Amino acid sequence: MTGFLPNLLFYVVPFLVVVGVVITVHEFGHFLAGKALGTKIDQFSIGFGRPLAHWTDKSGVEWRLGWLPIGGFVRFAGDDNAASVPDQTDLEAMRRDLVAREGEAALGRYYHFKPIWQRAVISAAGPVANFVLSIAIFAALLMALGEPISPARVDKVMPGGPAARAGFQAGDVIVQADGKNVKTFDTVKQLIILRTGLPIPFVVERGRERLNLVATPERGDVMDAVGRKHRLGMVGIVFADRPGDRRVQHYNPIQAVAGGVYRTADVVRTTVFYIGRMVTGHESADQISGPLGMAQISGDLAKQTASVSKDLPSFALNAFLTALLLVANISVGIGFLNLLPIPVLDGGHLLFYAYEAIARRPLAAKVQAVGYRVGLALVLGLMLFATVNDLQRLRVFNFLGGLFS
Q1: Residue among 27, 147, 283, 356 flagged as catalytic
Q2: Which residues, other chains included, contact 67 with Cβ-Cβ below 8 Å and sequence gap of 6+?
Q3: Is 104 known to be catalytic?
Q4: What is the pLDDT of residues 178-209, one digit of tens each?
Q5: Fewest 10 Å CB contacts: which of 141, 281, 315, 362?
């Protein structure tokens, strides 16, 4: 029992904070876009379930604070259809009812009677808010702390590995990888891990020479930042981390924002690249994580932060910075996921609106209903698959199997 509460604090609390911030910002993006376009809004809730507190502002929006702090939602007036895209029959019935109750002029305040472009803007505003959050966090960290720079200097080359076969030697400094300039060895590591079997061109400095080398990563055991083992791409290079090589690159506000945009776009590019490699069978899907995986990462990072902090103030500062980085990375993922053209997601709404713009009428209710069910099945299936991955990483199945062996 004495170990349960600390573990609860380390794993559950950071996860709830990170996910709560990311999802609340997503929903607030929809809210702000709706407000800006004069859309009537019934509710905005932070958290789910029975409200711990609620109040109504002058514009008629009910603000809620739910007891389950895992995100939030915004509810537009008249938005009773699960897919948020009623068909022509539904729209006509809704129109008659609203005109009878509030008059013709009131229609323009309701989401479903907005022009298509306005509905599309409101739908896209959630993912956009996630991207803006990530850019803002990355930019703020770059401006406040700068960027640690440490050359990708090779310390050792493992005999017989891809790097050795490619001609790498101890002392080489990698200055380019796959056509990109390299500032630090972490850049090279991140590039290699998702490119198993894919030749990577490198440019290295060896003394006064510049050499072009090509190494093809092989799958092997790779340790992540919190000491967990993964089967990913590796080439058998050990990088030197010398204190004398380290420096910090500082950014002015414009450079920091540009850096934030670049880092956010890089997360998206990496995600798209991984999905493409996974679909073509070159990468396994075991890197997909769900809520359990995010909770584990949050908790492991919190424990790691506690172990390297000397006192409570340093722990608080390190925990805050670590949480910011985690929020930034997860926010990009949530934004990207919601733009996928799957009904029940924002991207699915945008797909329906594209059809409506071309056909000049909403998609039939039956088709919407099928699309909604298929989309929900896909999302639930992805969550189930991610949860199985998380349970395997946590060795839950091995534990259960041991009980009956």
Answers
A1: 27
A2: 47, 48, 49, 50, 51, 52
A3: no
A4: 888 888 888 888 888 888 888 999 999 988 88
A5: 281
